[in-house]
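Provenance and format

Records in this collection were gathered into a single text stream. Each protein contributes a sequence line and a token line. The two records reproduced below are adjacent in the stream.
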Amino acid sequence: MKSGNEETNAASGTNAPRAASKAPAAQGTSAAKAASGTNAAAADGNGMIMDGRIVELAPDERDRGIVRASVVGIVANVLLTAVKAAVGLLSNSIAIVLDAVNSLSDAAASGITIVGTKLAGKQPDRKHPFGYGRIEYLTTIIIAVIVLWAGIESLQQSVGRIITPEPADYDTVTLIVVAIAVVAKIMLGLYTKRVGARLNSGALVASGADSMMDSIISAATLAAALIYLLCGLSLEAWLGAIIALIIIKAGVDMLREVLSKIIGERISPDTARSVKETVASVDGVLGAYDLMLDDYGPDKLWGSVHVEVPDTMSADQIDELTRRIQRKVYQRCDVILHTVGVYSQNTKGGVAAEIRAAVIAYADADPYILEVHGFYAEEDQHAARLDLVVSFDADDRHAVVAAAKEYLEKRYPGWSFEIALDSDISD
């Protein structure tokens, strides 16, 4: 996307030609970025905006839903652990005993989820003004480590049985118990994952995935038992080793996903598009740029954005506009914009319009310039300011900006150009 305006101006009625898809009708000034930002008081993800102010609400149904699902998981897994352990010890089946250990680890994971949810729901304080939502990511890490531990332990036990095999003693009751455990684990896994997806709880989704892995273990144990009874061939140790590797991979995947969130991922295209379109739909906004969102836990997004407004707007009009933007974005996108910065757009034509067109043409010809915004020309001072969003694919992003500056100053002798390098942080 090369335009700061092509996408975001649809709702505000400002339509730019193809060239402006790289250089928006956005004509602001870097200096104005912070000059008129509206800062909101700290609040957690359960906050809302009233008349431009962010206020706090009581914890919503999300936390209660996570706790309910976790309690169901604890009860189910404790029962499964007791039954599997008894059957496994009586039948001398290492696979069933390890299955019981897995169920016990799932019960522990559900308990950790409850504790994490309670801690994450704490109200913001002076030390943590953005709340404790990221604790949920830490609980997901703990669950991932539990899954890894279960997988590694299962692998060790299975390899031990491969080296020194011991015959198992299966009977009809054993097979029925294992079959019931398979069905129970599948139902529990599907339920937990569904609730986790609905409530956007990474810890619940991870627990559900772990339960599904356990159902595969139980199914493999059942298959190995049947093969042993029918053919006299003992495969449970080999199947246990294969399943252990699958569990280890699942744990690694969980860990990689949650660490990526903690490090800081790119804003999802759908979220970025939704916020920008909502901002641009507010009457008086000519474009939305520089969207930055910080993740303070599931469903807890805080951020900032810059908007382009006519240079004829007064300070009180801008103040009222930024409050309307904050309120509308929260209502539609559930995102708290704590700061709305401003770019000023030239409302007169003349040389400013000519230079802007030249900037657009240059940007369109450079494959590494993804967007131009914040353009503003002061004709009496022969000075212009603008921001260039340069792709991370460029070998030297600063060189791209330097080349643009050199081109413009040669084309317009006597003019100075202040060009800020912007990063491609959102779609």
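Adjacent record:
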Amino acid sequence: MSRTQRWASAFFILILPDFGFGPPVDPACPQSTRAERLSSLVETLTQAKERFRQEIRDSRDNDEGRTAAEERRYRVETEVAKEALALALADPRGDVAAEALRFVVVTESRSIGPPTEAVTRALEVLARDHAGDPGMGELCGQLRRFFELPAAEDLIRSVLEHNPSRTERATAHLELAGYLRTQAARSRRLRDNPVVLGNFERARGKEAIARFLRKDPDALDRLADVQLERVASQFGDVMLGKRKIADIAAGELHSQQRLSIGSLAPEIEGRDHEGKLFRLGDYRGKIVVLTFSGNWCIPCRSMYPAERELLRRMQGKSFALLGVNTDAEVGTLVESIAAGEITWRCWWDGGDERPITTRWGVQSFPTIYVIDHHGIIRFKPSRAENLGELVDKLATELPAEQP
């Protein structure tokens, strides 16, 4: 067993039972030691997440057990992020620091709890010392969860200004458009739902949310459109994986302009987890809830119980729940279906190309469309809380002869 593995195993044993941490590593230690310590933190978190993931699956029908497992996971994520930040601040311009700071951002972007001070500090140091590094454009895509943090947008704009790579700047332009779009959607949701607003104020602070809500959501949408048009005209030939940025930008503009409420939902054609071809049009005449999600997305996974319940309640009626799954490997979708987490049919749209997701311009997850029996987009809820009410409303419009 390597030293990294021994550290990770010991750390894992310490934190899981009672969340106690030993004394932190001396920030003045050699860079090689900090690199090993960072590796141990990464391995620790990987092990912890796997254990908590299994606990959450085992507690699928036990809300109290699930909540306890999620709270333990958040505590581990928070403590690991704090220690990684301490390692980075020992030598903020070093290579280990850059890796540690990205680890903090990615860890908190996938956390089930609110962002901490560690991620704000990590964003600030990245913007100051590492905006020109390779991979920063991709990192900008992890920032939408931090919609109320000025440091998140500051990092994206710092990458635009300082990164020498055309591909990195193109990616940052695209991600800035997505970040602004996310802010617009979140602002509308907070304004329209006092319960959600209260939850976010308690979790992220009244002052931070009040500052965020001073932004005009319509103006944010317009700024996002300007960014998409700019990236398409200046960087349209840049490839992100197997997709041209021009195609991605066109899909997002199409989503904003042509996938609005009242529009006819465009056709989707693709294959499910077994490789069988099917189409959205196959379900014309039924109410359809269409979700874009993935097991990598914590908010998406948190919707699964509500989606299962909705599907159970609507069984035998003119209703279909369909998913566009964006997991990198189809095997992940297969496992979720086999485990009973996902009980509805999905197109698998993972890999590098994501043709369905690109064509529909989806950049934030989950994205939900509620489509009536005529194929018209009627609602675009941001979460699953009131899906049942929306479906029931459309059910009253079904022809009388349909159940």
